[in-house]
Design a protein that fits this description.
The protein is mainly α. The protein contains seven helices and no strands. α1 crosses α3, α2 packs antiparallel against α3 and α6 packs antiparallel against α7.
Length: 206
């Protein structure tokens, strides 16, 4: 960390002194710094003729962001799992005799959804309003990390669903009931993936 701080100070002082970015890059490479470190250090300062150099906005980390986004994604995960369970049990009931266990699973899943769906919707809309009012909140490192975790889980679920479908085809276990269940998983996971992939594109300068 100390070395990075020294690098940042050197780049700032060099820019204040009027040195060009190619000259700064050449000097740093000769001193043993890697190109990625140099790009990061130079990228921290805007390419404007203003003096002193203007710093670019940096990512922020706060306990408030961790609480809000962890709660939001936790509610999403619980709700999505129970939505899939409820829909798959309904599929089972279409192809099999009704059972007390199936009804109880649906009741429990619906109970979870009654709590998680409004809570997730409220948290999401509340955060969207805050982001629209203050675009600086898009730079939250917690938001980015947890959003990418949600994308990772959704992508892993889609891959797992695809693998299970191919395996069922190869083993001869692919039935209309199985296909309906696989479609439910892909629609829920795919919807989450697309929603958060689009969210990451909003307000991002990169």
């Amino acid at each position: 960390m100390a070395n990075r701080d020294e690098l940042s100070l050197f780049v700032r002082d060099a820019l204040v002194a009027g040195k060009s970015r190619p000259d700064i890059t050449g000097a740093l490479i000769e001193a043993g710094w890697s190109e990625s470190e140099i790009r990061e250090a130079l990228g921290a300062w805007a390419e404007t003729p203003f003096t002193p150099p203007v710093p670019r906005p940096v990512q922020t980390v706060s306990a408030r962001d961790f609480f809000i986004y962890a709660l939001t994604f936790g509610v999403l995960l619980i709700g999505a799992i129970n939505l899939v369970i409820v829909l798959q049990v309904l599929v089972d009931m279409l192809f099999e005799d009704d059972s007390y266990v199936a009804i109880e699973r649906i009741r429990f899943g619906v109970s979870v959804l009654i709590v998680t769906a409004p809570l997730y919707l409220w948290l999401t809309l509340r955060e969207r309003r805050k982001l629209a009012h203050d675009p600086a909140l898009y730079r939250s490192a917690i938001r980015k990390w947890l959003t990418y975790i949600a994308l990772l889980l959704a992508a892993a679920t889609l891959l797992g669903d695809l693998i299970a479908t191919i395996y069922a085809l190869l083993t001869g276990d692919f039935t209309l009931q199985f296909m309906a269940k696989a479609v439910i998983v892909s629609l829920v996971a795919g919807g989450i993936f697309l929603f958060y992939a689009n969210a990451m594109r909003q307000g991002e300068p990169e």
